[in-house]
Write a structure and sequence with these properties.
2 domains, Rossmann fold
């Protein structure tokens, strides 16, 4: 069988536009003489459609578009793609219930409908909220030049069974959908997927696919959705595994070129020289281990994921340009570099906003970065508005017998006022230019509230909100070391931005470590607490850190939930990001033990 796997980048809800993308993919596969083309899960609606599924006519439009696609598709190629479908009552009328389905057509005829059986409802997933699970395994025979090949249909979680995300117990007593397909004689297991990117998860997926292939001695082929959708990023991976459990073919991660595979040729090639083992070589991360951040593949994937996330969020929300506040520090430098690579340096404006405590290198490093990237930078001093606010604010403070700004340092009110003036300044530029503001705060800061609500948190997309401070440094060094491979003409990030102590520069001689423990300590506590949900005692036991320190950090994580709830949407790249996958109450009394 000649098989085409076509990762596709749909726009959620754009049914007609997505149908056109699918039609283009089908036409390309037909020109390549494919017997079958497989497209991703819910590719017609885009994933995740969320409450769009509840809108009147949405499901009907998806079904109409699916059948129109089939009628206009080239002949003699089997097309299989994902779409939501309304369930029907005994009279054949559509109901308010829906399924997450695959439709298979050939020559305009519907061959099969498969409804996803395992519906993930954890982390960012809410599939039980929208879908009813399927109950039937589906196989079909695909005509080929050599006779026919029997394929079995699965969708995403049907293959992973939560093993990639640490939720395998959810399906402990569920019949394995792959077992059912093999029992029906499937020679090739097809998986249409929309699995969000997480660092290290692609290797876990490869291991799972290899395990299915080897255990049942069948081919396993998987295609994933591509693109950014709000906070989620999809890497568009395409894999084919032979019955030996070896990786027979794979597409380029984050690429959109269809993968064309001849399974007969793979069988013949494997008999002579088996493909390289697909099993893990230690580059992925066990759920019980703290993340290793210097893995080359992870850093490459992280770079491509973040640039894709920026590019698609702007493109799909209608923005063409972005603004980045440049402090001369590492976070804003990395954000600007990613933005420049995502949408082009001509479409990124850096804004340096020196204040009363800004160092000289905050300006020189900001402009050096802009020069390296080939982007424009401007200076918007905040000294004058800060003086005006100080005069007015001190008068108000005097009226209530409160200390004046800066009367005693550190002064959180004075520090936050500077940040909020910067937030107002860059949002004014956004209003005037139509450019979206990219916030620059990282996950470490957001976790403990080391950021200012309505100040440096102002913006439309929080690029680094799921990237720890240590990972910010690792990725910045990786970009500089591999600048040509990653599309830059020279190392973009100034060495001084990487090497100088991080500082908010909101009071004299300030550094982050005045308020926070060293980032290698802070990041480990955050990862164990947020991503692995460890207790106070467990973190202390595992790390050897002081109990009082760990308790203070856990308390900061808890009490700053109100800030995170008001933050700009962020790009998810770890197992647990602040956002839709972590739903903690703001007003709560749980104390970590």
């Amino acid at each position: 069988m000649r098989l085409a796997l076509a990762s596709t980048n749909p726009l959620v809800g754009d049914i007609s536009g997505n149908a056109a993308l699918i039609a283009d993919r089908i036409a390309a596969a037909a020109l390549a003489h494919a017997d079958l083309i497989l497209l991703p899960e819910l590719v017609l609606s885009g994933y995740p459609p969320r409450d769009l599924l509840t809108h009147e006519f949405f499901l009907a439009r998806c079904e109409e578009a699916a059948h129109t696609l089939a009628q206009h598709a080239p002949r003699d190629i089997t097309i299989i793609f994902g779409t939501p479908l309304a369930m029907r009552d005994t009279d054949g009328k559509p109901t308010l219930l829906a399924t997450n389905s695959l439709l298979a057509f050939r020559n305009g005829e519907l061959l099969a409908r498969y409804d996803k059986q395992l519906l993930p409802t954890y982390d960012v997933f809410d599939e039980d909220r929208y879908f009813e699970p399927g109950t039937r395994p589906i196989t079909l025979d695909i005509p080929t030049a050599h006779g026919s090949t029997r394929v079995g249909l699965t969708i995403c979680e049907d293959l992973w069974k939560g093993q990639d995300a640490g939720f395998s117990n959810r399906y402990r007593d569920v019949i394995d959908p792959v077992d059912s397909l093999v029992a029906r004689g499937a020679q090739v297991i097809l998986s249409a997927s929309a699995s969000p990117f997480v660092m290290g998860k692609s290797q876990k997926h490869r291991d799972i696919l290899a395990g299915h292939a080897k255990r049942h001695n069948v081919f396993v082929a998987s295609v994933n959705q591509l693109g950014g959708h709000d906070d989620l990023i999809f890497d568009g991976h395409c894999y084919v595994f032979a019955g030996t459990g070896t990786l027979a073919a794979s597409g380029k991660p984050f690429g959109d070129a269809p993968l064309i595979v001849d399974t007969n040729a793979l069988v013949q090639a494997a008999a002579v020289s088996p493909a390289s083992p697909a099993l893990s070589t230690g580059n992925h991360h066990d759920a019980n281990d703290v993340r290793t951040i210097n893995n080359l593949n992870d850093l490459n994937d992280l770079f491509h994921a973040l640039t894709l996330g920026i590019r698609d969020y702007l493109r799909k929300t209608g923005f063409k340009k972005s603004l980045v506040g440049l402090s001369g520090g590492i976070d804003s430098a990395l954000t600007a570099a990613l933005a420049a690579r995502a949408i082009g340096p001509a479409n990124v404006l850096g804004v340096a906003m020196p204040g009363p405590y800004s160092s000289d290198h905050s300006i020189t490093d900001a402009y050096a970065l802009a020069t390296n990237l080939g982007m424009q930078c401007m200076t918007f001093p905040i000294a004058q508005p800060f003086d005006g606010f100080t005069h007015a604010t001190n008068a108000a403070f005097a009226a209530i017998n409160a200390p004046a700004l800066g009367e005693k340092l550190p002064d959180i009110a004075e520090e936050n006022l500077q940040s909020r003036i910067r937030g107002a300044a860059i949002m004014a530029l956004s209003n005037r230019t139509g450019a979206i503001v990219l916030t620059t705060g990282n996950k470490s800061e957001l976790a403990v509230g080391y950021c200012t609500l309505y100040g440096d948190m102002n913006g439309g997309l929080a690029v680094l909100s799921d990237v720890s401070k240590q990972l910010v440094y690792a990725l910045s060094r990786h970009i500089n070391a591999n600048f040509a491979q990653l599309g830059f003409s020279s190392p973009p990030i100034p060495t001084s931005s990487i090497e100088k102590p991080p500082s908010a520069e909101l009071r004299p001689n300030q550094t982050d470590q005045d308020s926070l423990p060293p980032y290698e300590v802070l990041d480990r506590i955050i990862e164990l607490a947020v991503e692995h949900k460890r207790s106070l005692q467990s973190i202390v036991q595992q790390t050897g850190y002081d109990t009082a320190l760990v308790r203070r950090i856990l308390r900061l994580i808890d009490i700053n939930e109100f800030k995170r709830r008001q933050a700009a949407i962020g790009l998810k790249v770890t197992t647990v990001a602040f956002g839709s996958g972590r739903r903690h109450p703001i007003a709560q009394g749980w104390k970590h033990e």
